[in-house]
């Protein structure tokens, strides 16, 4: 017997958040999120995204036991300003039972039709700044802090229910050489002199804060032509700043300014927190913080999280400056392997950034779409 229940209280929300801890208890590749962060993200009283979004959460029960979960999301900015008549779904997890997945998706269809929307797409978060896509390649790789892990049957269930792939992201891993490439160093020098560019270096986190809004402004400019784009609002910037700031290390931030002091490019890299988050197992106390701090201090693996370049400087070699700075950092910190964040498969401009480092595509994920 299968029943789908709407989450209506904090106890059920906790059950919703912690269900994957049961589902992936024996999976060595699943990296758990922080439970408190997940609770706050899904709480309409704590996450400002709900100023322009609505969400309903559901738990699927089979013979009285939790067997699946799903969030059904309406993003009003996406619908009203961009004109995408889409109902989003995310936080999709379920046992390997197609009937469970079907029952969960019925809730998505109901909400979509009630709001006169045209299609359903997911899994995605509330905006394009959050986790997205079902894993379709890389099942024997740890997920990063900003991606979901899924068993292979997830994608098979979606296809069996008549969904088609919509957006696809690829991820790469690359080895960092012991010395910087001569051509990168040479080209970096040429670009700095040609355009009068300089690197902003930070001694502590406080010095980063004045540049955060400008970074997100560059993100809006950099990615506004991509199919998944939804403008980042100021309240979201403030929220993400608070959510991820504790993970940021000033040494791993590269900002580039022009002669007038205007920010024209930036990159955010972090030490890999995947192993640390596995050890924390969803909690910062009593030892979760210790594992995260250790990952910041001593790590041979890093992850590229964000890169933004003003359209005026795209294609002009500014990335050579970023890579020179990053190479010096990686060598100084003992970083041997770097993993990229998910990149839309059609975003070849970003993928070309890594070509000199012999990148290997090791993961792929897609959202799935179905007409209503």
How much strand?
25-35%
What best-fitting shape do the alpha-carbon axes yield?
globular
Average predicted local confidence, pLDDT: 91
Q: How many separate helices? A: 12
Residue ranges: pLDDT <50 for 5 or more in a row? none
Cα-atom radius of gyration? 21 Å
Measure the end-to-end span: 26 Å
- How many β-strand runs? 14
String of helices and strands: EHHEEHEHEEHEHEHHEEHHEHEEHE
The largest β sheet comes out as: 14 strands, mixed
- The helix content, as a percent range, equals 25-40%
Coarse structural class:
alpha+beta
How does this model look, in words?
With 372 residues, this protein is of the alpha+beta class. Helix content is 35%, strand content 26%. The chain contains 12 helices and 14 strands. The chain has helices at 10-23, 35-41, 76-81, 98-114, 153-160, 182-195, 209-223, 234-244, 274-280, 288-297, 318-333, 348-351, and strands spanning 2-6, 53-62, 65-75, 86-94, 119-122, 134-137, 164-175, 198-200, 253-257, 263-271, 301-309, 337-339, 343-344, 360-371. Strands 1, 2, 3, 4, 5, 6, 7, 8, 9, 10, 11, 12, 13 and 14 form a 14-stranded mixed β-sheet that branches. A hairpin with a 2-residue loop joins strand 2 (53-62) and strand 3 (65-75). The two termini are 26 Å apart.
